[in-house]
Amino acid sequence: MKLQKFLTRLLLFATLACYVAPSFSQTRFWEPINVGNVLSFVMNSNGDIFARTGSVLFRSMDNGKNWSVTGLPRTFIYALAINSQGHLFAGTERGIFRSMDNGAQWVLINTHLLALSLTINGSGHIFASAYPDSLYRSTDNGEHWIPITKNFPKGIRVDVLATNASGHLFAGTEKDGVFRSLDNGDNWKPINTGLNNKYVLSIGINSQGHLFVGTNGSIFRSTDNGDNWRLSNTGLPPTLVHAFVFDSSGNIFAGTELTGVFRSTSNGDDWMPLNIGLPQNPSAYSFVTNASGQILAGTQHGVFRFTNNGDYCTVTLIFICSFIAIM
What we know:
Elements (H helix, E strand, L loop, with lengths): L1 H11 L1 E12 L4 E4 L6 E4 L5 E5 L2 E5 L7 E2 L7 E6 L5 E5 L2 E5 L7 E4 L4 E6 L5 E5 L3 E5 L7 E2 L10 E6 L5 E5 L4 E4 L7 E2 L9 E6 L5 E5 L3 E4 L7 E2 L9 E6 L5 E5 L4 E4 L7 E2 L10 E6 L5 E5 L2 E5 L7 E12 L2
Antiparallel strand pairs: 1-30, 2-29, 3-4, 4-5, 5-6, 7-8, 8-9, 9-10, 11-12, 12-13, 13-14, 15-16, 16-17, 17-18, 19-20, 20-21, 21-22, 23-24, 24-25, 25-26, 27-28, 28-29
């Protein structure tokens, strides 16, 4: 009798085993647009985008959906720039080429300058940093070039040039930090107060005129035109910082080596990774904002389009319970 009651209780007894399985509802931030190993972009006033991939220059006329090869001769391309008239300039191993018909035909306008970086100010003046250690300016659409190295130390390689809305020039160097010119390149001075890492790879300037410098391990920010710099690295791993772009809300995107894209919504105070949809260990070398306001990132795996505002994946906790009857 006692055994029967015991067995009856066992039949009615169940153990409740519960576990929590996280289910991630992930929004893919980036969608691929296969072009190649994209190193830099420029865009004209019509929204046509040009992307350089080593020795080939591509063009997209539909916001990055489709790409075709331009007429630039096959040669390694170091730098791109475009002026307000839509004239394109390419710094290559053969010299500087210019196209005045949206990339269909190109003319070699200078055979002496190996331009590592190009920038154009609001007056249409073109500035080139030439290997190994020279700076040049053209005021006639690239027809003639003059050196602008007064007060600029010899033997310093400039890897990146940038200009702000006031026409001030900034030169980022391989090992000597940042130099600034307030007079169209006629005179230069170093501006490195607080810039503890002087290996400068990239320079970004937001709508407020704040400067951001990417180095081989960190980001620095200046809110006073480069007079003083502050480390802006919270949340960022030690990595090479190749490029910056700013969206219409003032958010900053930074492209890095093998750690992908990081975004700051706090003007650089802190950074968060933004890599869902990118391949593993992505290197983001360049950015451009298309005519629809979408950000394109150039990586070693091709072009990727940013698809939303970057809110991180939501986590749904699904409670799964199983009842185990003990017979």
